[in-house]
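Researcher: Here's the sequence for the chain we discussed earlier.
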Amino acid sequence: MNRFEFLHLKSPIHELHPLLKLLCCFIFLITATIVYDPIPNMVFFVYTVIIAVLVARIPARAFARTILPFSFIAVGAFMSQVIFRGGSGTTILLVGPINVTQEATHFGLALAFRMLTIISISLVFAMTTNPKDFALSLVQQLKVNYRIAYALFYALRMVPQSENELSIIRSAQRIRGVGVRSGFFGVLQEYLRFTLPLLISLIRKTDRAAVAMESKAFGAYPQRTYLDQISVRSKDVVIVVIVVVILFLTVVYLREVGLLERIIFTSQTIPE
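Model: Thanks. This is the structure I predict for it:
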């Protein structure tokens, strides 16, 4: 199974209207972004994992495998804040010129879990949303030009196909005796070797898609008919309302117990 690929499963998240699902993701994203404190972002990240594994029924191993590379990026962001954001503040560790302060650690944890929350909720959307349904909902509900919707659909389809193509290129090169070097520079050299074949393959796929579109007179008419109709159901609205209420109650509770004091872009505490 490729990363970022739509999983054909049956769950309440899979059945949710694509646009309302995207709205829920934006609500998570905005809520995680404006919160300055680490504990609330940890809670939001746990929420996204619960949604992914228990509600959307994404296999835990597949979800962990997909989010693992981004976890290293989050750890790097945390370490950079701890090391370079030192200076004035409450010192908790002093190692040579590196002054680790409580404020820097606080902000670094908030930043790392904010990144993980945003990435994980984005993965939930990508792994539970059929690109075709998403494109149809853009056209039918938001009245987006179908040319733009199809371009977005094709881009979403190409991401997992690119990973599959990369796997094929890697296997083909190993069959031809191209050795694999260990270490960071070995991996870097390997991926540089994949760049040109992958680019050529994607150009060929795009060219075939363009020929198929032209043969079917794509774009010749201002409107098109569709076999499938995407509609907003009452239970979709209920799910969005539940998500909003849960996030609102979580923020209020964390504020009341003193775990949410500041918002991003300011170091001032939230007024009582």
